[in-house]
Amino acid sequence: MNLYFSTKEVATALGVSQSSIKRWCDAGDLEMVQTSGGHRRVSMTSLIQFLRQSQRLLVEPKRLGLPVVEPSMDINYEREREQFKQALIQSDEDAARAVVLRLYLRMERISVIGDELIAPVFTEIGNLWDCGDIQIYEERRCCEICSRILREIRSYQPILDENVPRAIGATPPGDVYSLPVGLVELVLREQGWQALSYGCEIPLRSMERVINEQKPRLAWLSVSFIQNRETFLNEYASLAATALNAGTIIVVGGQGLSPEMRRKMDYYMYGDTLRHFELFASLCYQSTKATSEASRQEMEAVIQSFL
Predict the structure, then answer these.
(1) One of this protein's Pfam families, by short name (predicted)?
(2) Whether residue 223 sits in one domain with residue 179
(3) CA 181, CA 199: separation in Å to the nearest integer?
């Protein structure tokens, strides 16, 4: 896929004049880069962010390798789930990608796409595997296809300033389910966090080390499976204590954490849905920004007192 487009290509895809594209670029509404010859080029990431912020739809999206989005079509998640499930089971990656990107281009939040589309579809796929209707390789293939789609969406999210609050996440040893931890990363990045998922099967001792070294504001643990409950609880207790000393907020989620398990754990929030993570993360982000701004003003006042 071409990651950069000329103003003419973007104008054709949007159904507007080339001068409009140049005007938006010059005004900073649509980010662009200039070639050595002085020509404007618009990246796919900049274009998609512009579409989401301006709520515009592409007239000819296929010219840019994007799916068609009908402006008058209401979002019907029951229909979208069936299309997505069938595309995954049939290994039709283009069709599966089209379903997710259509929703993303319709300005749906990642939390909604995850809760209303991806999570229920993979619950159905898991049930099909449990019943023997599909093989394990087919279930894993579905996961791989979805993971690639999520990585593509991540590439379309804006690059965030290094000064924004940081967040890290992972799954514990034995937990190979990459979709939940990856979705939380996308949700947090959409909220403005400098979020980074370290992936699956990360020893909790390693997470402690990262927290000690990087002092992230937030750490999330996605737990779909636990190898040994006693070992997990002991190592988690150490992780929670380290996070507390570092000023890191720990949030957890996943079907591997039963109410009984959670009663033995210290954490700030347990999320049943991505929406829960989104709301909590938004609150933490605003609180962190307010604290940072207050600290900045205090420092400026101290500096002024010495002038």
Answers:
(1) B12-binding
(2) yes
(3) 7
Residue of 114, 195, 122, 206 whose CA lies nearest to 160: 195
Total-model pTM:
0.88
- 70-94 residue pLDDT tens: 766 678 999 999 999 999 999 999 9
Structural domain boundaries, residue 123: 77-156
Q: Are residues 84 and 60 in the same domain?
A: no
The pLDDT tens digits for 261-298 are: 999 999 999 999 999 999 999 999 887 766 655 555 55
Domain closes at, from 127, 156, 185:
156
Give the up-direction half-sphere exposure of residue 142: CA atoms within 13 A in the CB hemisphere: 23
Q: CATH number of the domain that 121 lies in? A: 1.10.1240.10
Distances in Å between the alpha carbon of 293 and those of 194, 286, 298?
18, 10, 9
Domain-embedded: residue 307: no
